[in-house]
Amino acid sequence: MRRLTCLLGMLLLVSSAGGQERLRLHGSNTIGEALAPAMVERWLRAEGYDQIQRREIAFEEIELIGRAGSSELVVEIHAHGSSTGFVDVAAGRADIAMSSRPVRASDRALSQAVAGLDRAEQEIVLAMDGLALIVHPSNPLRGLSKGQIRQIFSGQLSDWSQLSADMRGRIRVHARDDRSGTYDSFRAMVLGDADVLEGALRYESTEKLAQAVAADPLAIGFVGLSGVRGVRALEVSDGAQALAPSVENVAVEDYPLSRRLYLYAPEPRSPIADRFLRFAVSDQAQPLVESVGLVSQAIRRYQPRLRQDAPEEYHRLVKQAERLSLNLRFGTGMSVLDGKNVRDLDRLERFMQQPEQRGRSLILLGFSDANETLPIMALRISGDRADFVAQLLVQRGIDPARVRGLGGAAPVASNDNDLGRQRNRRVEVWLGQAAPGVASRITSRTASKAAP
């Protein structure tokens, strides 16, 4: 009888354990603070869990527990910085790494499990973000160049009077800590080989940093877009016109401090991790990105302020057109799109199927960086890139009305560094009024492909 009782107890324990699943997301505070919890809760409901509980475990550590009948799914979110996500996935302590920077070779060298995280199928772009340079609302300064930002945070500029005739006082610098992907992004895009000055106030939390800047008229700091609360964001320039960290400028990655937010999941991965990743990039989930102050990858139309330094042909081609919120970018001399851009083309296909786009046509404008080749060859390379995108769209049933290469004209960033040159190697996508024959060609092909 005693043996039978023990056996029944073991069976009950196994049965109870078998009803619980677990998913572990570790890494970026930018993602883990608000976006990941909101997305996990929506996903749990989509999975059929009608009872959802949130439990605080420790600082920047929570669990979301979904229950449906005897089934239970626990999603663990630890948001201690992007680097911690890669370390924990490599050690088997996490299933998905949340990161506000691209995976590095040093991350992939942690273990064999994460060696392939730079592959398109393991690197998922979840949302877009921009590093906003924030100051107290009373600060009269309106914008800074990347060079000036570097000088401020490395200590070469120490008083506000060196930047504005309307302000005096020692600059108080606030920065994220070394484990933060936000800091890694800032270091890569701004600091380079310089260090944050000794004595800068450092934070693990975006929210605490923003609160400190909001309370100090002499402060400056940097946060992701979701952290711009109670402060003012400055315009930033990098060898081109200064841009604000607006939704549109970040979405097309023309804003100098734009960045992508990632989910990384090694293969093979569990079915539950795969289901979450598919949900995270779906049209159902992307509106949540906007709700927490980040930039979704949903395509939107907008009317930008046309640049005065752009050539006359550029102005002629986009006259009465609207820009779409995606740019397609390329490596040097290459016609190869990354995983995000491939998914962007899928989004563009769905966008053009919408009734509101009926009778409209696409305009593709290709660009090269100024150092890529001779000016006459730059026109050819930029045209080849636009043609390549047009070919991919034709395969999806969409014929662009106009396709042009404009060489190294109208750079959006400095050509003095690799990151700036990469931003300049792009294809812009505009939406114009098509000629009747072109419009009908787009409509009929798209409609036939969309039919079941």
UniProtKB/TrEMBL annotation:
Q: Which UniProt keywords are given for this protein, alphabetically ordered?
A: Membrane, Signal
Source organism's superkingdom?
Bacteria
Organism equals: Pseudomarimonas arenosa
User: What InterPro entries does its record include?
Assistant: OmpA-like, OmpA-like_sf, PBP_domain, Phosphate_ABC_transporter
Provide the protein name. Phosphate ABC transporter substrate-binding/OmpA family protein
Which CDD domains does the entry link to?
OmpA_C-like, PBP2_phosphate_like_1
Which Gene3D superfamilies would you find in this protein's record? OmpA-like domain, Periplasmic binding protein-like II
What's in the GO CC field? membrane
Residues of the OmpA-like domain: 317-435
Look up keyword 4Fe-4S and say if it applies. Answer: no
- Pfam family membership, one: PBP_like_2
